[in-house]
Amino acid sequence: MLQLTITKFLIYLFFNLLLFIPAYAYQSKHFKPEIQHATRYKVVEDINQYWVSEKLDGMRGYWDGQQLLTRQGNIIHSPTWFTKNWPITPMDGELWLGRDEFQTTVSCVRKIKIDEACWHNVRFMIFDLPKHTGTFTERIKAMKTITNTTSSAHLEMIKQFKLSSNQQLDKTLNNIISNQGEGLMLHKGNAYYHVGRTNNIMKLKKDQHAEARVIAYIGGKGKYQGMLGAITVQTTTGITFNIGSGFSDDERANPPEIGSTITYKYNGKSQAGIPRFARYFRIRNTEVEEELMEKK
Fold first, then answer.
1. What global pTM score does this model have?
2. Is 188 a catalytic residue?
3. Which of 55, 203, 205, 265 is catalytic?
């Protein structure tokens, strides 16, 4: 009799857990947002057909009208005051702290236990309206209306501007990069919002990104005595080389672990296939892997 009672209790507990799990899952993840993605820049004949904006080095976010989500549909746990007064209109944008602050942004935004101090400096920089049925030029007007009429210090619009020539585009890109910016985005003015990858949006960068595995350390000299001087890395194709720049003092004191995978920047390759001007960018994080892939 006791055994039968225990069995019934376990069955009861099992089915109640089945009812609980979907509710819990919904708390942590919504449906994956239907968003559009850019392609790499290709030279265009008439640059005036495109709106140009700075490519922000932040973390993409999606406002569904009630909740901030990641590109995968995971809930972004932000303070209630952060999204106060925001419209019910879905908005596509970038959670951003500033230039060259990607890792700090991710560290703040990804926390389940909200760190309100860091959120005070975050802005949601909108760059599109996924549910708007007009062209991008028309959506720009709508975004301006939203940001001008919404009482929120954390909701802004990425500045969109026009250029008259490819030479002016190159000059603008060089200016952005020299000030630690990431690059530019070009968006065709007469394009409608397209879910998936589209040639109507292009990203223009000078840096190339790749990943490699850390296999050894090289000690520092001078002011870096007793700290990291460089790391020796190996690519998936077996090419081995050293990276000695791009590290902060804290990263030199606490370098990426042997065996870990890092992302590095470079500008072209030598005839031997070795990346030129390789510099450390960040340690690979599986939670933000897709975000990094999108930035390449």
1. 0.66
2. no
3. 55
